[in-house]
Amino acid sequence: MADQLLESSWCEISLPKIAQNLTNALARLPQGTRFCAVVKANAYGHGIENVVPLLIEQGVSYIGISSNSEARAARDAGFAGSILRLRTATPQEVKHAVQDRVEELVGTVDGVRSLIETLGQGALPRLHISLNAGGMSRDGLELSTAGGREACKKILDLAGERVIGLCTHFPSNEPKELADSIARFQDDLSWIFANSCLRREDVLVHGGSTLTLASGQDPQTDMMRCGAILYGIAGSRPDFQSTLTLKSRVISVGVYPKGSTIGYDRTSCLRHDRVLASIALGYANGYCRQLSGRCAVLIRGRCLPVLGKISMNTIVADVTDLPGVVIGDEVVAFGRQGGQAISTQAIEQLTGRIIADLFTDWGQRNPRVICQR
Ligand SMILES: *Cc1c(COP(=O)(O)O)cnc(C)c1O
């Protein structure tokens, strides 16, 4: 399949691995807890249209998105369940997402007022109140202050009949911090049920993400919202497999004499005659410059050092120890080839970035190729 692909570099997306990660994630859920599959950032770079059919197949009925185009892509892919936006949105965004039945987060009185002004009371979407219990302080209502409790009552006065959910997001899943956040969230919920006409049985309480699920602590919610776990990003758990491989091809092979310098600023210099392969991959493809002088790629199942600075569209690997490399050979810059791997841990350490950051980057800067293995 990829043999026919005439692209500089590409991301292979493994559908069976995503499906297996989903199966494993569902099996880990606390008894009776629902699963919201997070597909923001175009499914962490994997393409919503690729992931949604797998979710439908395993009966996932809630998904989390960020942008209107993601909601549209999910509907286009046949998703008929509930779509929740995982951040607050501008009134204009909300207005244009009504056709795709996107449920929205609210956390401030002004936010709710502007929705009512723009859409009219009658056209408000289904709403979830975001609580700052976890302590992200990005959009949630802070109930520890008198002002926050007043705001909560006001929001419920203004839009109470549209409120179907109460949620929070945990900033840390370190055991003690998570336990504290869970307790705090439960306190906030109890206050709301004691001080409003919202009834516990009428709202969906949700909180907990991948690292919460991986932690084994039960956040005591009706639903957990998990993204990373689907793509094999769940810390170092062996039961979740990485789902994306970054590939390119050799475009030139040449012999360079001792003393040759390599790339911009001559940061690398050959101490012996070497055979160097040029590869059609660079920072324009998300193969970031932090990797300069420190990384390796896989060709024919061998791990080979990349020399010099990363250019916009090419890198240079030393293939002297691997005779027979030819133009057109497939190169793995992240993932497995033969028995070798450029691993998540290695690439995170070399780049100083987390793999979710890199997946969203690679997946959106390169064409995606579906892989059935
Ligand atoms: C991204 C996000 C999630 C999913 O987080 P993962 O760590 O990828 O599981 C859940 N909830 C909210 C509000 C988010 O923004």
UniProtKB/TrEMBL annotation:
One biological process term in Gene Ontology: D-alanine biosynthetic process
UniProt similarity note: Belongs to the alanine racemase family.
UniProtKB keywords: Isomerase, Pyridoxal phosphate
Taxonomic placement: Bacteria, Pseudomonadati, Pseudomonadota, Alphaproteobacteria, Rhodobacterales
Catalytic reactions of this protein: L-alanine = D-alanine
Cofactor(s) recorded in Swiss-Prot or TrEMBL: pyridoxal 5'-phosphate
Stated name of the protein: alanine racemase
Modified residues (N6-(pyridoxal phosphate)lysine): 40
EC number from the UniProt entry: 5.1.1.1
Database matches in Pfam families: Ala_racemase_C (PF00842), Ala_racemase_N (PF01168)
GO cellular component, one term: cytosol
Any one Gene Ontology molecular-function term assigned to this protein's record: alanine racemase activity
InterPro entries: Ala_racemase, Ala_racemase/Decarboxylase_C, Ala_racemase_C, Ala_racemase_N, Ala_racemase_pyridoxalP-BS, PLP-binding_barrel
Binding site for substrate: 138, 312
Sequence ranges assigned to domain Alanine racemase C-terminal in this UniProt record: 243-371
SMART domains cross-referenced by the UniProt entry: Ala_racemase_C
Organism: Parasedimentitalea psychrophila
